[in-house]
Recover the amino acids of this structure.
């Protein structure tokens, strides 16, 4: 996590209590593999296609760990942007990642080719990960 923190060039301290609480909650609730898989999806699609999620629509915005992993781009370094307790809720954790309507299916196809567990719920593609369900929403612009 320290390497990711340094790479992001953030002012979030390595010993920040908020960071420690999030890391502990992610580890204790068995979300490590799911968080890393979500990071791999967002990063892989960004590298291969240049496609990035719609920043304001990710349900993990305001959390430190997703920011450090590159899942979100909103830096939660102030009281206005930090959202405490995102990883302390009910499980499986419901995560929404939104992409532009023009490219969302391309993202879903990429994830489907690399991860088992892709299905739909109410017409929306979802990926079932350990203790996490990721919904890929489309945004019409």
């Amino acid at each position: 996590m320290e390497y990711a923190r340094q790479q992001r060039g953030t002012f979030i301290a390595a010993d920040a209590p908020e960071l420690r609480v999030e890391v502990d909650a992610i580890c204790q609730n068995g979300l490590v593999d799911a968080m890393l898989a979500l990071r791999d999806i967002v990063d892989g699609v960004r590298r291969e296609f240049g496609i990035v999620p719609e920043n304001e629509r990710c349900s993990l915005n305001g959390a430190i760990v997703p920011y450090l992993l590159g899942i979100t781009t909103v830096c939660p370094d102030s009281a206005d942007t930090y959202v405490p307790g995102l990883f302390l809720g009910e499980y499986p954790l419901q995560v929404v990642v939104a992409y532009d309507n023009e490219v969302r299916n391309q993202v879903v196809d990429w994830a489907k080719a690399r991860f088992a567990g892709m299905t739909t719920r109410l017409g929306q593609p979802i990926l079932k990960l350990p203790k996490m369900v990721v919904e890929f929403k489309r945004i019409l612009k």
Q: What stands out?
A: The radius of gyration is 15 Å. Helices lie at 2-8, 17-28, 32-49, 64-69, 104-114. The CA atoms of residues 35 and 66 lie 8 Å apart.
